[in-house]
Design goal:
The protein is an alpha/beta fold and 105 residues long. The chain is built from three helices and four strands; from the N terminus they run βαββαβα.
Amino acid sequence: MILVIGGTGRLGGKVAELLRADGRDVRIMTRSLWRAEALRPAGADAVTADLRHPGSLPAALRGADAVVCTAHRADAAGADGPRQVDGAGIANLITRARGQHRSRT
């Protein structure tokens, strides 16, 4: 299963769509589950999680063989800004993904 982070955005949505068209199992990680509803009929699973909150990531990562991260926040500020999402958030993702991978091997 491939986890697509940011799968409700333009790029991530296209990535998820192409993966599903190729027959891949896809899980969309989103902060707002309702945004993933359009992808469910195509067979994508959806999970609510937030890169800024490391405790929300294990459920999204569970069972993932690969992760594609298209999340970014270049157009926001404050708690939703690039430093929190693109910086600390991606670091949270890497740390949690490594931990999940080690526990599977």
